[in-house]
Amino acid sequence: MSRFKKMLEFLDLMRSHKIPVRITQEAEDSLMISFALPGSRYEVYFYEDDMVYSVFRGSEALVDDFPALIAEIKESRE
User: Fold this and answer.
1) What's the rounded mean pLDDT across residues 36-45?
2) What is the DSSP letter of 53?
């Protein structure tokens, strides 16, 4: 089965479960479908001959410490 067909089937699954997705092209050779479920965020990468995904689990709590956010961004770039 082609990866394009797998991607369309995956999108149909997401639509049937009413899960909103975002499709982006992060790299020249792939498309990424990202979505969130309670407690997790997913990135699914569709390549010409492969499909892989990453899961990010953690708190969904809102944080109102804007200076801490700015500090994290700056630290990540040092």
Assistant:
1) 92
2) E
